[in-house]
Amino acid sequence: MKKIILTSTILFSVLTITSFTTNKSTTTSINVSKIENNNLILAYVVTTNNIQIYFKQYECAQRYINDFGGTFTGTIYVKDSQAISCADLE
C-alpha cells in the first residue's frame, strides 16, 4: 500500500511540474508577441557609476567596458531609440 501511495505522489508531482512548465512557455510566447508589436529590441545593459547604459550589440557593450569600465549586467527590452549602437561610440 505504501508503494502505491508513494508512486501516485511522485506521478502527481511530475504531472504538476510538467503543467507549470507548459504554462510558463505559453506566457513567454505571449510576451514575445507583445514586445514585437511595440517595436522593442533586446539591449545589452552595462552598469557604470550606478548608471545603466543600453547597447544594441553585445560587441559594442564589451568595447565600452574595455575602454571606459563598467560591468555587463544582463539584457532588457527597450525602444530602439534608447539603445546605443557602435556608430554612436566613434
TrEMBL record:
<protein>
    <submittedName>
        <fullName>Uncharacterized protein</fullName>
    </submittedName>
</protein>
